């Protein structure tokens, strides 16, 4: 039966995969397989937003201090760099 693989069969499959693809390429293949399965599951369940896009972005902090009580300058008074 093709669906009945014991621990010996799984060990042989892992060894053959290591010999064919090498130890550096095998983790990359596992990651891409996991991403593909996750995307498939999300598309089946109707979840359109990936987890990476759910993170809110905060605006970067200004490098120059801004005086809150100072009046705004006119265009002609601003210093250009």
Tag the structure with descriptive keywords.
single chain; 81 residues; mainly alpha; 2 helices; 0% strand; elongated
Outline? elongated
Please tell me the overall pLDDT: 76
Biggest sheet features: none
How many H/I helical runs?
2
Work out the number of β strands. 0
> What percentage of residues falls in helices of 4 or more residues?
40-55%
Give a brief rundown of this model.
The protein is mainly alpha-helical and 81 residues long. The protein has two helices and no strands. The protein is elongated, with a radius of gyration of 28 Å.
Question: Would you write up a description of this structure?
Answer:
The chain is mostly helical and 81 residues long. 44% of the residues lie in helices and 0% in strands. The chain has helices at 7-21, 25-45. The longest helix has 21 residues, at 25-45. The radius of gyration is 28 Å and the shape is elongated. The chain starts with 6 loop residues before the first helix and ends in a 36-residue tail after the last helix. The relative contact order is 0.05. The mean pLDDT is 76.
